[in-house]
Design a protein that fits this description.
Elements (H helix, E strand, L loop, with lengths): L1 H17 L2 E5 L9 E5 L1 H5 L3 E5 L3 H16 L21 E4 L5 H4 L1 H7 L5 E5 L19 H4 L4
Parallel strand pairs: 3-5
Antiparallel strand pairs: 1-2, 2-3, 4-5
Length: 151
């Protein structure tokens, strides 16, 4: 109980200071993919929360931080479209809607924070050949778990 209370206070503090919080989840046994997600994009920026699978926590945090700045500066992202200039280089990404039925398992801290409906997108990132995990011949499987929870 104390850890949960402490976590909730950290989330509230980060929301007050930065407008959002980054929550990282990992499987210590390495069976499931690591993932990170935002809390506060919806309430602060009127933008869906974003979840990223298969990257190290610090990399995901930096991407989410850059996205928060972009969103604050008026950048809008199209869902279900290949987008350039989101994560740097010539790499393309795609945002896909996360099915609400998976929120409690993957966005639990956000569910607790909002305690009401909210939106969430998964950010899909490419392999070294710029192939996304929803495309044939993608060389990575780090995001297979994401593919199970998106529309």
């Amino acid at each position: 109980m104390f850890k949960l209370f402490k976590k909730q206070n950290l989330i509230k503090s980060n929301l007050k200071s930065y407008g959002w919080h980054c929550c990282n989840a990992f499987d210590p046994e390495g069976i499931n993919s690591n993932f990170s997600y935002s809390i506060g994009f919806e309430s602060t920026f009127n933008h869906p929360e974003i979840i990223i699978f298969g990257l190290e926590a610090d990399v995901s945090h930096q991407i989410l931080s850059d996205l928060a700045i972009d969103i604050q500066n008026g950048v809008t992202f199209e869902i279900d479209a290949k987008l350039k200039n989101v994560i740097g280089g010539d790499y393309e990404v795609m945002f896909k809607e996360v099915k609400a039925e998976h929120f409690s398992n993957y966005l639990g801290q956000a569910v607790d924070h909002y305690n009401k409906p909210f939106r969430a997108w998964a950010l899909l990132w490419p392999d070294k050949n710029n192939t996304l995990p929803i495309e044939d011949n993608c060389l990575i499987d780090d995001q297979n778990e994401a593919l199970k929870i998106i529309k």
